[in-house]
Write a structure and sequence with these properties.
Number of domains: 1
Mean pLDDT: 84
Radius of gyration: 18 Å
Distance between the termini: 64 Å
Structural class: alpha+beta
Largest sheet: 5 strands, mixed
CATH architecture: Sandwich
Number of helices: 2
Number of strands: 10
Low-confidence stretches: 4-27
């Protein structure tokens, strides 16, 4: 019976470790858009790619900056962000409230290799591009940031104003 318990423990431990492991990818593949699974967040919701009203192109650099750093959108607008990484290290763009981004940044410090693929995130390898399609349903001021440990703290943050 003891070898069976040991084997069971080993399987569970190995399975749990893969939840946070992902190597250089930093994220699992985003699932396809499914309107039945859309979650309303404080700053909007995943947008329907067929209803994009505008495309905003952003660049991420190893100077830990987004260009442009400020974006203004209309309430209800579905925006496709095309995020290019012109740097030599992995960067990401994560949309959220200031509080959510700070919490997520703290979590990333504890688990820098955690795997996640939420609709409000794009993880972009050097020289590549990523996309986020988002519908801004509530007026206000929100942020986007790179939450890779050290990047957020270095000022890799932008602002979205929803009017």
């Amino acid at each position: 019976m003891k070898p069976l318990k040991t084997l069971a423990f080993a399987v569970i431990a190995l399975s749990a470790s893969t939840v946070f492991a992902h190597g250089d990818e930093h994220a699992a593949k985003k699932p396809a858009y499914d309107a039945s699974k859309i979650e309303e967040r404080a700053f909007g919701r995943e947008g329907d790619p067929r209803k994009v009203s505008r495309t905003v192109r952003l660049d991420m650099t190893d100077a830990y900056r987004f260009t442009p750093a400020d974006v203004t959108v209309k309430r209800g607008e579905t925006v496709k962000f095309v995020v290019a990484n012109s740097g030599k290290v992995l960067h990401e763009m994560v949309l959220g409230t200031t509080e959510e981004l700070k919490e997520h940044a703290d979590l990333m410090k504890k688990f820098p290799d955690m795997e996640h693929a939420d609709a409000n995130m794009a993880h972009v390898k050097p020289g590549a591009k990523g996309e986020i399609v988002w519908q801004f349903t509530k007026a206000g001021e929100y942020q986007f940031a790179c939450l890779i440990p050290g990047h957020y703290e270095a000022g890799m943050v932008g602002k979205v104003v929803v009017k």
